[in-house]
Amino acid sequence: MYSPMKNPLLFFCLIFPNFLMSQNTANYDEKKVPDISIPDLFVSGRGDYIRTVADWEKIRRPEIISLFTENVYGPITNELDDIRFDLINETENPYPEISVLKEVDIKVSRQGNQHSMNLKVFLPRKKGGPFPVFLLISHRNVMGLLENMEDEFFPVADIIGRGYAAAIFDVEDVSPDDKKRFTQGILDTLYPEQLNKANGMRGLAAWAWGAARAMDYFEKNPDINETKAIVVGHSRGGKAALWAGANDSRWAITVANESGCGGAALSKRKFGETVERINSSFPYWFNDNFKTFNGKEECLPFDQHQLIATIAPRAVYVASAIEDQWSDPKGEFLSLKLGSRVYSEIYGRSLDFSENFQNSQRTIHKPSVGYHLRDGIHNLNLHDWERFMDFTDMQFDED
Q1: pLDDT score at 75
Q2: Strand pairing partners for 120?
Q3: 109 has which bridge partners?
Q4: How many Cα atoms sit within 13 Å of 149 on the Cβ side?
Q5: Cα gap 151→196, rounded to integer Å
Q6: Is 104 helix (H, G, I), strand (E, B) or coil?
Q7: Peptide linkage before 4 cis (omega within 30 of 0)
Q8: What is the model's pLDDT at position 399?
Q9: What integer pLDDT is reported at residue 352 of this predicted model?
């Protein structure tokens, strides 16, 4: 476990919690972004420099995962006694001409209790499987998305048209996106002990748990190529997708769309949404320990670029929107740029990510690392999905 005694600034912040004042109003002025010290990717907690793949995978990466588990998200516990997949198909397929809908009831049992989550998987009707698959962690009502075929948040027809399977689950089935009801899922039923721990699993980690159970199903379905599975999340779902990708090496590509604070954006910039603001508005997303950093981002012994780095050597994608300043597009870009160093400096991949942030629409697709900044507001739309699929085509073509 990480000790604050190893970090003098963190130790000072915890001993004198009122020394740093809270930030109550959002900052959108780059001139007011504080001078920040970015934690080094390649210096271990003991002060050793990490140079090899073995040292990264055995020392530094587990150390970073432990920091985020303890201080931000809590664990994605995979303790279960039994898991069953029942095909139910209760929902009418809105795309019958191009897809086959498999609606699955995933039943998980632990210590005499059982919980079910619903997973919908659209498979291309054409021959050519097993198919690579996109999984969307959805905090928007799934049935509403399927009924509104004009909604681009989950464009099934476009995904199928590119030769991918399209899967989705509603976080309501795992941990409701509500501060009063969030325990009414796996936290109450399967893992109640987590709620008594300051570093325990909360909403975002529970959603990442749901993604892991979907992957369990993909591994059992011969129509799906589980080695080419992509986990996608938008906004809060993007935060969960990053934590899912960091913890589960089965995901070939992790995509975080406009994930902002607690997602891809650098917390220490204090730009747009801050740690204090997100913990105040959504106290059930993160564990209790994260709240000790409210208004004290300077004290964080880590930042989000390190979380992005833990996904390597698998591919990662970060997307932003110009008008979504609340999510700090520049902070998301810088985080990806800093985190991407692991691909070249540890894994020896030829990755030139020398671009600087430009607040205009652009797309950057590199081996293992993807990014785009589009016009518009905070949302997930067809432009985003098309860029995700272009990047995915590129990654799988190289395999």
Answers
A1: 98
A2: 103, 168
A3: 82, 114
A4: 6
A5: 39
A6: strand
A7: no
A8: 64
A9: 86
Cα distance between residue 328 and residue 53, in whole Å: 31
User: Taken in order 233, 187, 79, 74, is the CA torsion positive or negative?
Assistant: positive
Tokens 């020392």 belong to 59
Beta-ladder partners of 229: 133
Q: Would you say 334 and 304 are in contact if contact means Cβ atoms under 8 Å apart? A: no
**Closest CA relative to residue 334, chosen from 265, 236, 239:** 265
- What length does the chain have? 399
Q: Are 361 and 374 in contact (CB under 8 A)?
A: yes
Is there a catalytic annotation at residue 139? no
- Residue 86, classified by CB atoms within 10 Å of its CB into exposed (0-12), middle (13-18) or buried (19+), is exposed
Task: Judge whether 281 counts as a catalytic residue.
Answer: no
Task: For residue 381, give the nearest of 155, 51, 201 by alpha carbon.
Answer: 155
* pLDDT < 70 regions, the chain: 1-24, 399
Which phi and psi angles does 228 have, rounded to 5°?
-125, 60
- Active-site choice (44, 66, 365, 378): 378
Tell me the C-alpha distance between 304 and 267, whole Å.
7
CA distance 285 to 262: 9
According to the model, what pLDDT value does residue 398 have?
73
The angle subtended at Cα 217 by Cα 216 and Cα 219, nearest 5°, is 70
| Per-residue pLDDT tens over the stretch 200-232 | 999 999 999 999 999 999 999 999 999 999 999
ω into residue 132 within 30 of 0, thus cis?
Answer: no
Selecting among 99, 138, 175, 235, the annotated active-site residue is 235
How does strand 315-321 pair with strand 253-257?
A: parallel
Q: Is 328 left (phi over 0), alpha (psi -120 to 50) or beta?
A: left
Q: Greatest CA separation found in the chain?
A: 64
DSSP state of 87: E
Model-wide pTM > 0.85: yes
Give CA–CA dist 172/141, Å, rounded.
Answer: 8
The sheet carrying 369-374 orders its strands as 82-87, 99-110, 113-124, 165-170, 131-138, 224-234, 253-257, 315-321, 369-374, 362-366
Q: Return the structure tokens found at 29.
A: 């002025």
User: Of 255, 238, 224, whose CA–CA distance to 390 is shortest?
Assistant: 255
Helix (H, G, I), strand (E, B) or coil at 99: strand
| Residues forming a β-bridge with 371 | 318, 364
Residue type, 388: F
What residues contact residue 29 under an 8 Å CB cut-off, 6+ apart?
none
